[in-house]
Amino acid sequence: MMEEGGAGALAGGGEKDTASTRSLSGSHFGAHHDSSSTELNVSIAEYDRKAASKESFFQDVHVEYLIISTSHDKASGSVTKRQVWHRYRDFELLRDYLVTIYPSLIVPPIAEKKVNLSWEAMGVDRFEAAFLDERLNALEVFLERITSHPILAQDRMIHLFLSEDADFRTEVVATNFQEKSDSRVKAVAALLRLKKSDKRFMDMKHYADTLEMSVHSILANHRALLDQQRAIYSLHSVYGRILSEWSGVEADLCDELQLSGGHVDSLADAMSGFSEEEETKFSQPMKEYALYGEGLRSVARHQMLLQYDLEQMEESLSVKAMSKSFIAHEPEDQMTFGRLAAKLLSGDGSKEARLQTVQREIDDLEGSSQKQVERLNTFTSSAMHELTRFQHQRDGDIRAFWIAYSKLQIRFLKKALSSWQNIQKSFK
User: Fold this and answer.
1) Which of 28, 104, 179, 296 could form a disulfide with 383 if both were Cys (CB 3.0 to 4.6 A apart)?
2) Residue 298: pLDDT band with limits 50, 70, 90
3) Which residues have a Cβ under 8 Å from the Cβ of 350 and sit 6 or more positions away?
4) Half-sphere exposure (CA, 13 Å, Cβ side) for 273?
């Protein structure tokens, strides 16, 4: 596990298909952002399947989400409520923008566009209610994270995203943020060619991989365990049916068998509710942290690119310094290739002119190098501060997930114990 803090830390419109609308306004994932003067509450009330065109053979059938934001100005007491529909791709665009504009921040992940985890992928339709319910909750968590982040929450694009009066996609594309995005190919090349890597960011990258792998393993094991529990308690329902049928032919044991069958049925039915609660309170929140791995790697990659650019500048400086030394020590009467090239290009191949030219180049490189050092130091400081914030968030969340999961297991075991105690009493 990484140490916390400081230098030691690791660092479109369409027609509404009312039949497919599913309200989830009671979700417990509602976002809340509280600044010194304004309190902002954000939630996703429902999702809706829409089709962009009825005339076209290939309809653009997609899902949109209704986002409701309520802003309360503490000073004036005024309340402003807005609602806006967004597609999944709008959430993707917003996150891509934030990752590019704030490279030192660990931008929260969004729900996956499709099920990619092997144990979940079998037979899942992207328009299934269960899949869309889960995605809605995950997108709502994403909104909660960014609207409560001390830096991200201030970005204009987030406020445009929540406003029904703004053309969010046009506005964000107009920033040309894509031109600033890091190339993964270049990042890999930088990692392979770095001469001096920062251990904090190498550790961050390693931790991201470990976090992703660990959470995936936990979720896979939890899915297998849950499937086995469901299978076991489905057999309990068979118990209940057999006991009920048997009670019809046993005059002396009729009441005992009938009561026992009812208790077993109750236990089997309870398992369905508990398993759904496990998905909501444990599996879905844990999955978010598997997706956080890419956010951590993105920060580490950007640092490596900055470090690589600095090393390239330093290497160019070294080459220019050697070139200056070579010019300074060459004989005045000797026609060298450098002197000939300078004479052909500028008309002045003298040693003094060439020394002046190379010195200007050195001065420019030194200035650029100094700016790159400052840029790298600023990025590192911001990234380490962000990592500390993330660690506190992670620790609190993971503790809360496991406490909720433990309480759920205790409740179910108490239910099972109570059922079997009642069965025991039935036969006394």
Assistant:
1) 104
2) very high
3) 339
4) 9
